[in-house]
């Protein structure tokens, strides 16, 4: 029995060791999740059972040794033997099954080239099995497979090292695709199973490689799809996709906003479309006929109608589309077209001939001035001829200047098509015209010709040059000294009179000296620093450029009248005129005028004083004359009464004259003040007429009064107005012949009251009209009128004090008309009185 037990124990231990040490115990569980688990459980169960039997056998052996050949031992031993035999048979059968399963699993695992590497928990030693030659040469050591750097490039080897370290330390699984140094593609899968780290390496070939590549392509496709979806979501333009039946399958947020849909389902349910039915039908026809559709269509988004460039293409069984906002581009395009059209219209209005040739040297545009300039047929130009054809036709019509080598001349002209800058030339045509020709290369290719008829300009230039020479000669012959200084303060122009006047040197002035230098030269004749500073500032200043008059009294006794005058080009002109003789004459005249004014003032003062002194005795004489004529003083003889009447008339006339002189003197002194108030026109005329009634009766003169019904009244000094009218009527009566008529009329205008006095006297000569208002200016002109000549002077003075004016119209032999205009505006009265 002992031998049997020992034999059975050895068999069990051998099976247990075989199962425990087999790599497939862990590998099968990793690769085949169902059967390897049962195998592992079976192995563990068997191990436990073997351990348990081993202890029981040891107890039985000890019991047999102690108790001997007892019956009880025999019976127990027999039972144990029978049970052990049964267990041994069952275990052998189970071990054979496990061995078959292990062989089957190993055949399955290594049916294709691959390597299995396992690291037990806590053990750095790796167990390697499989086709090592797949990676390394057949004569290589198996452990070299762990040196990834020997059969992998550096980057994949480092990636493999990191993945294996993470698997062994933290149990992180991985799956890598590697390419060996000899070009083989391998797949490495790492997993942590049953306390072991297991790595499987196999070659990807055939279907597996295709599957791996398909997987990679699928991932790339998924990434691209995700990227495209992200782009579509971020795009501001509506993007959509439709299926075979035309139903919406995808739409980005911009499409949702444009159609006011909350989601694709909402858009499908409510049948919300970006385009209207007509545009959708056109897009569907385009997709059916040409598999694509492109058009610029109006779309209403957010309540606003905008233009979009809609593009759609067939993709697979469906279609995709995008609508790009083209409103700004459309507006810019329209603006560009309008601008080009405006430029064309502008060029058509130019007097300069314009011709534009494109990159193929064909006429693209011309204006009417170009056609008229060369007298070309419009039909010929509308055929867009090339540049050479136009030049050949102009040469055939003898409209171009003759050239020794026309072909070389034309080739040189056509160099503008390769130039980068504009060129300018002048053509002298056989008909005598001169043309300025500017050739400008266009940025988009071609050349623009600009023709200007400069015949008149050249003629004007020649005339201008001649005029400049004439002006130069004229300037040199002037007696007035002239010098022109530029904005930099330097002398640019001068004439000989300026040099002589300031005793300068012609050579020194030709060097264009600065004004400060010229000032130093001129100070020997005139050294007033203030005046020279004023001259310098006027020449060099850039602001307040105005004419500045000068008057210089030099040391030599001469007097210069100067002027600083700014010119339009920034220069300044100095002019000096010697007015010494004129100044002397003017000084003499001024002194004489002052003496005359003093004498006139003395006369006025004398008249005023004498008139004032005459009033007192005149008043006494008039008083006593009235007293003597009073009957209470006693009767007078007829002769005495006649003499007394002469005395009264003479004293009254003398008093009136004295009062007039005093009034004029008061007015001249500026002391006259008007007593303004309402002036009744009718009453005023009546009062003035009363004073001349005796004279009218004596001379048998009729007074004709005409007063407009609406004349009314105006504001003025009634006393002075009566005095004005009285003097005018007295003057008219004095110059009128007997049995004649004197008229006075009054009318109202919009701003004044007008009095008109007429007579039929001898009239006033033309040379006397300006003198009738002067003091003591009296002419009888063959009439009975005698007087001191102060009446009309008072009339003008009083009317002007009222802010009015007096006008005299007269012709010799046709009488005189005097018009007095009194303003109704009170403001005019106040200004005149002041």
UniProtKB/TrEMBL annotation:
The UniProt transmembrane annotation reads 58-78
Identify this protein by name.
histidine kinase
Cited SMART domains: HATPase_c, HisKA, PAS
Q: Which reaction does it catalyse?
A: ATP + protein L-histidine = ADP + protein N-phospho-L-histidine
The Histidine kinase domain is annotated at 609-826
Keyword Transmembrane helix annotated: yes
What Pfam families does this protein map onto?
Answer: HATPase_c (PF02518), HisKA (PF00512), PAS_7 (PF12860)
Task: Enumerate the InterPro entries for this protein.
Answer: HATPase_C_sf, HATPase_dom, His_kinase_dom, HisK_dim/P_dom, HisK_dim/P_sf, PAS, PAS-like_dom_sf, Sig_transdc_His_kin-like_C
- Keywords carried by this UniProt record: Kinase, Membrane, Phosphoprotein, Transferase, Transmembrane, Transmembrane helix
Q: Which organism is it from?
A: Bradyrhizobium campsiandrae
The record, for CDD domains, names: HATPase, HisKA
The record ties this protein, via SUPFAM superfamilies, to: ATPase domain of HSP90 chaperone/DNA topoisomerase II/histidine kinase, Homodimeric domain of signal transducing histidine kinase, PYP-like sensor domain (PAS domain)
Instruction: Name the EC number(s).
Output: 2.7.13.3
């Amino acid at each position: 029995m002992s031998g049997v037990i020992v034999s059975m124990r050895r068999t069990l231990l051998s099976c247990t060791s075989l199962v425990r040490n087999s790599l497939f115990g862990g590998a099968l569980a990793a690769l085949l999740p169902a059967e390897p688990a049962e195998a592992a459980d079976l192995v563990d169960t068997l191990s436990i059972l073997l351990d348990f039997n081993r202890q029981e056998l040891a107890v039985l052996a000890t019991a047999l040794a102690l108790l001997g050949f007892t019956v009880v031992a025999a019976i127990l031993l027999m039972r144990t033997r029978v049970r052990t035999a049964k267990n041994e048979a069952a275990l052998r059968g189970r071990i054979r099954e496990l061995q078959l399963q292990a062989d089957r699993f190993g055949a399955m695992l290594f049916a294709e080239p691959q390597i299995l590497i396992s690291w037990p928990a806590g053990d750095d030693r790796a167990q390697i099995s499989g086709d090592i030659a797949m990676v390394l040469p057949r004569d290589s050591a198996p452990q070299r497979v762990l040196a990834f750097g020997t059969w992998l490039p550096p980057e994949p080897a480092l990636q493999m090292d990191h993945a294996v370290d993470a698997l062994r330390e933290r149990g992180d699984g991985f799956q890598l695709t590697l390419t060996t140094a000899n070009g083989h593609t391998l797949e490495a899968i790492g997993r942590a199973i049953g306390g072991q780290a297991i790595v499987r390496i196999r070659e990807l070939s055939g279907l597996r490689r295709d599957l791996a590549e398909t997987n990679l392509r699928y991932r790339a496709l998924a990434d691209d799809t995700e990227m495209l979806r992200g782009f579509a979501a971020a795009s501001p333009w509506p993007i959509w996709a439709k299926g075979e039946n035309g139903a919406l399958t995808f739409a980005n947020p911009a499409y949702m906003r444009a159609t006011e849909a909350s989601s694709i389902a909402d858009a499908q349910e409510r049948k919300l479309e970006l385009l209207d039915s007509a545009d959708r039908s056109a897009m569907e026809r385009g997709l059916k006929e040409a598999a694509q559709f492109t058009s610029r269509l109006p779309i209403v988004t957010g309540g606003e109608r905008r233009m979009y460039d809609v593009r759609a293409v067939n993709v697979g069984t469906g279609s995709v589309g995008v609508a790009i906002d083209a409103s700004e581009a459309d507006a810019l395009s329209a603006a560009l077209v309008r601008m080009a059209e405006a430029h064309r219209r502008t060029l058509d209005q130019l007097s300069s001939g314009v011709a534009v040739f494109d990159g193929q040297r064909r006429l693209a545009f011309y204006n009417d001035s170009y056609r008229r300039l060369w007298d070309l047929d419009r039909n010929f130009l509308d055929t867009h001829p090339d540049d050479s054809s136009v030049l050949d036709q102009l040469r055939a019509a003898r409209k171009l200047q003759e050239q020794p080598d026309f072909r070389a001349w034309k080739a040189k002209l056509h160099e503008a098509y390769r130039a980068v800058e504009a060129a300018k030339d002048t053509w002298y045509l056989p008909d005598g015209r001169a043309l300025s020709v500017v050739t400008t290369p266009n940025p988009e290719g071609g050349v623009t010709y600009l023709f200007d008829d400069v015949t008149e300009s050249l003629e004007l230039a020649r005339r201008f040059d001649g005029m400049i020479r004439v002006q130069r000669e004229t300037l040199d012959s002037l007696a007035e000294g002239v010098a022109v200084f530029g904005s930099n303060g330097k002398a640019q122009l001068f004439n000989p009179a300026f040099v002589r006047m300031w005793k300068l040197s012609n050579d020194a002035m030709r060097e264009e000296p600065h004004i400060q230098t010229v000032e130093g030269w001129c100070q020997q004749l005139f050294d007033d620093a203030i005046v020279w500073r004023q001259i310098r500032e006027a020449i060099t200043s850039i602001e307040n450029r105005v004419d500045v008059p000068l008057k210089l009294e030099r040391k030599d006794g001469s007097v210069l009248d100067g002027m600083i005058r700014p010119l339009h080009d920034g220069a300044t002109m100095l002019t000096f005129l010697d007015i010494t003789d004129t100044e002397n004459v003017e000084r003499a005249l001024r002194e004489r005028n002052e003496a005359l004014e003093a004498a006139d003032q003395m006369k006025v003062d004398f008249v005023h004083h004498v008139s004032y002194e005459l009033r007192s005795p005149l008043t006494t004489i008039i008083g006593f004359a009235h007293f003597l004529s009073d009957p209470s003083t006693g009767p007078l003889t007829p002769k005495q009464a006649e003499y007394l009447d002469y005395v009264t008339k003479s004293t009254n006339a003398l008093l009136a004259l004295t009062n007039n002189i005093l009034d004029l003197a008061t007015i001249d002194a500026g002391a006259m003040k008007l007593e303004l108030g309402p002036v009744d026109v009718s009453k005023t005329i009546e009062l003035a007429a009363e004073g001349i009634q005796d004279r009218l009766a004596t001379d048998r003169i009729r007074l004709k009064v005409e007063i407009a019904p609406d004349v009314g009244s105006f504001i003025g000094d009634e006393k002075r107005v009566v005095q004005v009218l009285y003097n005018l009527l007295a003057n008219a009566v004095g110059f009128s012949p007997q049995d004649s008529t004197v008229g006075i009329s009054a009318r109202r205008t919009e701003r004044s009251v007008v009095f008109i006095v007429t007579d039929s006297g001898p009239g006033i000569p033309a040379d006397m009209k300006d003198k009738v208002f002067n003091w003591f200016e009296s002419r009888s002109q063959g009439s009975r009128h005698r007087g001191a000549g102060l009446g009309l002077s008072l009339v003008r003075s009083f009317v002007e004090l009222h802010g009015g004016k007096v006008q005299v119209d007269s012709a010799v032999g046709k009488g005189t008309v005097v018009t007095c205009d009194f303003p109704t505006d009170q403001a005019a009265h106040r200004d005149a009185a002041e």
